[in-house]
Design brief:
Organism: Linum trigynum
Subcellular location: Cytoplasm
Structural class: alpha/beta
Family: Belongs to the aldehyde dehydrogenase family.
Oligomer: single chain
Strand order of the largest sheet: 16-19-20-15-14-22-23
Keywords: Cytoplasm, NADP, Oxidoreductase
GO molecular function: glyceraldehyde-3-phosphate dehydrogenase (NADP+) (non-phosphorylating) activity; lactaldehyde dehydrogenase (NAD+) activity
Radius of gyration: 25 Å
Bound molecules: NADPH dihydro-nicotinamide-adenine-dinucleotide phosphate, 3-phosphoglyceric acid
Length: 506
């Protein structure tokens, strides 16, 4: 089945514009305006989505608010049951959704299918985890705090926040949307999703899977339109009780404008790969290829700078060069390793970083080559700190190597970054690895492997400009609830006597 056909036909207006989702129905924007989604490979309009207005956003917020009230009263096991159903429907329709990912964001075909399957698994795991952790509360007794008798019993439970606004980025539009939707729903919240423009149609298909699963009307809503046009209106909307955002610097701006509500932010990264003298260089080279070049470097967790000890740098660079030469470059439909980057402006930005490095004398391990949005993989050796590529994230298939003379120099470079998402260290000495891990100011350090967010139940967080809060299934559920306490006050202290007591002693 192709995208926009079969069960997905109702989300498309004729064969023209994809509809937005409000109150359990697929709708057209009243203005008749739409936003074009450009295929990164052909650079032609592939799809169109509705340009929702502020008035439409207001209506969506109202529906989300009232649907949440009923959803909060829905038993946990029923919420979980619906999530499991949505997960199964999502996986059943992996091919049409993957097709959208290929056309909208040039994700290699196999990776696109993997993203959808991973998303289904994430939703199922979320349902199971939610049932486990949301059904549990705490019971505290007052006499554990000095000066108190046992006269107060404190019961804690986990209550929903209300309406969660979810804003995922283009690079994992389905997976990073469900990583917000699943936790929000299992915790009893309603959801307003604003998909990225590139990736919106994949998101709309995914939302339809939740629709087919039979969630109540108004509980899940999806408004489309350019972030630059409706983004501020959404994030500053008084109806929003929590924002979960993944993307770039936009997140920093949102955190300054949003009201007094919980924020979950996963932003950019400049993940460093520190290579010590004793590292297994074949393992490092394989991980640099996987970490630096998969999805053409468009992952927040991509290796974005290699910090290699001078004594092994020549040998490492040769090994990486040999592997770069084997990468397949071309269209995502052919499942190439390197595919066009998401937009022309992104390609131009990457090219700017490459030209800056060229002017300042970096060693080009391959010739720089670009056709449209397709940029050939490029390893830049002998990069120095005065080059932009040493600090900025290209979000493309260009990887700088900085040669270091001590571990301290590597750690210093890593920590001088304004980002602090992940990092990795390669060495056979676990003691050194642990010391380096502790010294790196990043949310996660991988020892002897490239950075990665997954598996999706692992905690995932960035320090500094890389984020606020922590993701991962359990952390996201906990972030989308508030703790409520009820205290039972007894007229006099009451202690249990244990096994030897008799009721007659009361
Ligand atoms: N830490 C992490 O987990 C990840 C971080 N990133 C980072 O994101 C960047 C690339 O992703 P990209 O999608 O381009 O990031 P952006 O920050 O440009 O966009 C992310 C999302 O925000 C929306 N948006 C844009 N403007 C606003 C606004 N004013 N208010 C609210 N929402 C808005 C976008 O919509 P629209 O598309 O319509 O503009 C999109 O849905 C890189 O810097 C990368 O490092 C990416 C993925 C994961
Ligand atoms: O948005 C990203 O880039 C992802 O969070 C990275 O996920 P991954 O490390 O599992 O590819």
């Amino acid at each position: 089945m192709a995208a926009g056909t079969g069960v997905f036909a109702e989300i498309l207006d004729g064969d023209e514009v994809y509809k937005y989702y409000h109150d359990g129905e697929w709708k057209k924007a009243a203005s008749g305006k739409s936003v074009a989604i450009i295929n990164p490979t052909t650079r032609k309009t592939q799809y169109r989505v509705q340009a929702c207005s502020q008035e439409e956003v207001n209506k969506v917020m109202e529906s989300a608010k009232s649907a949440q009230k009923a959803w909060a009263k829905t038993p946990l096991w029923k919420r979980a049951e619906l999530l499991h159903k949505a997960a199964a429907i999502l996986k059943e329709h992996k091919f049409p959704i993957a097709e959208c990912l290929v056309k909208e964001i040039a994700k290699p075909a196999k990776d696109a299918v993997t993203e959808v399957v991973r998303s289904g698994d994430l939703v199922s795991y979320t349902a199971e985890e939610g049932v486990r952790i949301l059904g549990e509360g705490k019971f505290l007794m007052s006499d554990s705090f000095p000066g108190n008798e046992r006269t107060k019993y404190c019961l804690t439970s986990k209550i929903p926040l209300g309406v969660v606004l979810a804003i995922p980025p283009f690079n994992y539009p389905v997976n990073l949307a469900v990583s917000k939707i699943g936790p929000a729903l299992i915790a009893g919240n309603s959801l307003v999703l604003k998909p990225p423009t590139q990736g919106a149609v994949s998101c709309l298909h995914m939302v339809h899977c939740f629709h087919l699963a039979g969630f109540p009307k108004g509980l899940i809503n999806c408004v489309t339109g350019k972030g630059s046009e409706i983004g501020d209106f959404l994030t500053m909307h008084p109806g929003v009780n929590c924002i979960s955002f993944t993307g770039g610097d936009t997140g920093i701006a949102i955190s300054k404008k949003a009201g007094m509500i919980p924020l979950q932010m996963e932003l950019g990264g400049k993940d460093a790969c520190i290579v010590l003298e004793d590292a297994d260089l074949d393992l490092v080279a394989a991980n640099i290829i996987k970490g630096g070049f998969s999805y053409s470097g468009q992952r927040c967790t991509a290796i974005k700078v290699v910090l290699a000890m001078e004594s092994v740098a020549d040998s490492l660079v040769e090994k990486v060069k040999a592997r770069v030469a084997k990468l397949r470059i071309g269209p995502p439909e052919d499942d190439c390793d390197i595919t066009p980057v998401v937009t022309e402006s992104s390609a131009n930005f990457i090219e700017g970083l490459v030209m800056d490095a060229k002017e300042k004398g970096a060693t080009f391990c391959q010739e720089y080559k670009r056709e449209g949005n397709l940029i050939w993989p490029l390893l830049l050796d002998n990069v120095r700190p005065d080059m932009r590529i040493a600090w900025e994230e290209p979000f493309g298939p260009v990887l700088p190597v900085i040669r270091i003379n001590s571990v301290e120099e590597g750690i210093h470079h890593c920590n001088a970054s304004n980002f602090g998402l992940q990092g990795c260290v390669f060495t056979k000495d676990i003691n050194k690895a642990m010391l380096i891990s502790d010294a790196m100011e990043t949310g996660t350090v991988q020892i002897n492997s490239a950075p990665a967010r997954g598996p999706d139940h692992f905690p995932f967080q960035g320090l500094k400009d890389s984020g606020i809060g922590s993701q991962g299934i359990t952390n996201s559920i906990n972030m989308m609830i508030k703790v409520k306490t009820t205290v039972i006050n007894l007229p006099s202290p009451s202690y249990t006597m244990g096994g030897s007591s008799h009721t007659s002693k009361l």
